[in-house]
Request: fold
Amino acid sequence: MTNDPNNRLSYVLITPARNEEKYIETTIRSVIEQTVLPKKWVIVSDGSTDLTDQIVMRYAASFPWIDLVRMPANQGRSFAAKVRCFNAGYKQVKDLKYDIIGNLDADISFEKDYFGFLVGKFTEIPELGVAGTPFVERSVTYDYRFTNIEHVSGACQLFRRSCFEDVGGYSPIQGGGIDWVAVTTARMKGWTTRTFTEKVCFHLKGIGTGNGSQWGAWFRYGQKDYSLGNHPLWQISRSLYQMAKRPVFVKGSLVLMGYLWSALKRTERPISDELMVFHRGEQMNRLRRTFQKEKHRQGFQSISKVTRQTKPAHDGKRV
Reply:
């Protein structure tokens, strides 16, 4: 498969990877089978000690648009290290001519027309700054009442180049949220950002469990929610919603506990006051819309019930 000469927009990909020998070959095969190929794909190994580098080099030997960059070994896992790796890949493509830049995780798979579909959206929507799709992973189900369809998952984010430069790229936040900050900043600056639900990508590894158990991951989600400025009313609503999901009560409670724990400690937030105000405004607008829809639905059901109860019985006679 070659790059599509009829597609006006070209794209490049950057993939930070650390010890991903179990999954990265699946990701590579998903990319090389695309109907529209990237102009360049830089895979940045964060000091991997397993077979990640060897797997990438084997494919790079056959596909000249795949490059491997190896970073010095990094002690421990951190989201800031991911940004450091991404920026190392960014240096490799900054002098190329391209329209779209993508941040792709090393444990993702997708259908053959995945990138062709997303690149097409940038062609259709000139104001589109960031695009992606939902991801499927066995322990995660998104309800877009509480998951903003304007947010784009960090599993695979595509930025229009001018948008990426406008937001200043990714910020090296130690506790996470680098993808959220970039996408929300793009909206704050007037760009359209969108998750397109017609397609999905498949997350091969459980999210948020790299540093411990799933229960610990849920607590950390709450801590991250606080650090990224979630409005208290939104957080309570989100946690109550999660309490109804399996395991019942546990997930929502841990998320709320993480948020409250960070609030009690007055954890320093790594975002600007301007971004937090913008973010909270979006959350409260979505919360109002959700309650208005629910109120309208209940009102409609009440009217329907009264109508059924008061409707005269038909006796079969003509009037």
Observations:
- The beta strands are 11-17, 40-46, 66-71, 100-104, 108-109, 128-132, 135-136, 156-160, 192-195, 201-203.
- The chain is about 45% helix and 15% strand.
- The longest helix spans residues 273-310.
- Residues 313-319 have pLDDT under 50 and may be disordered.
